Amino acid sequence: MNIFSHGGSCGHSCCLRIQGLSVKIGSDTILDHIDLHVHCGELIALIGPNGAGKSTLLKAILGQQEFDGVISFAVPGQRSRSPKIGYVPQSPGFDPGDPVTVADLFACCMSKRPAFLGISKAMRNQILTCLERVQGEDLIDKRVGTLSGGELQRVLLALALEPIPNILILDEPLSGVDVDGIETLMDMLDDIRKNYDLSILMTTHDFASLPRYADQVALIDRSLVSVGTPVEVLGSDAFRKVFNRKGGIL
Question: What band does 207 get if pLDDT is binned at 50, 70 and 90?
Fold first, then answer.
């Protein structure tokens, strides 16, 4: 049964609550009884080996995957509304020879007017405002296919933040980003969640940045193996067992 309900109580802050979430495809159990609670303003990192079900969990939250269990969202004064969810998919591919610019991409997503008819001054200013949130105004006329990994993530993040969501979901946002770019992007996400008081739920294989940026880490291997602070999870026996490590990363 696919349920997205509203209500519940979480003090005076908004929250995303996942209760007993399971996903089966045929006879294969992809996720088994996941319970997770995400508060507004928190950055939660989902970690686990390939095939652990992380992306499937994100798809369930987005309404793209049938599941059993309950996903509920509550925010004071907005219980009758559906949450606004911003989403950045994992490593979308763009042809380097494609003439589509960043401005064209935004115009296609934000306007009913075909981009090939031209972009109005008002639309261009709106796009610049969106890019300003990720310090990417200088990218507006670049072709999407020529962007570096870090630049592309900033553009996709700017799109996901229009309009400002209650929950920002990122699937492997650090993939293809160099070491310096990872720190820049994580600093940006840290500022965004504080400035807009939104929740961030992201999958990642970059464990080194988690102690500095994440409030909680959820280790998933088809079931919820461990959840807690980065220090607790990354230093746990469960983490070492799942990733076959002789010691934690801390």
Answer: very high
Domain presence at residue 248: no
Q: Any alpha helices (H) in the chain, and if so which ranges?
A: 54-62, 102-110, 121-132, 149-160, 179-196, 210-213, 230-234, 237-242
For residue 69, give both structure tokens.
């269990």
Q: Domain count of the chain?
A: 2
Distance CA 31, CA 20 (A): 10
Residues 103 and 84 in one domain: no
- The whole-angstrom separation of Cα 200 and Cα 181 is 19
Is 174 contained in some domain?
yes
> Looking at the structure, do residues 142 and 233 belong to the same domain, yes or no?
no
Please check whether residue 250 lies inside any domain of the structure.
no
Residues 148-182 have pLDDT tens digits of: 988 999 999 999 999 999 999 999 999 888 888 89
Question: What is the rounded (10 degree) CA torsion for 24, 30, 33, 35?
Answer: -130
For 142, the domain range is 95-146
Q: Provide the 3-class DSSP secondary structure of residue 90.
A: coil
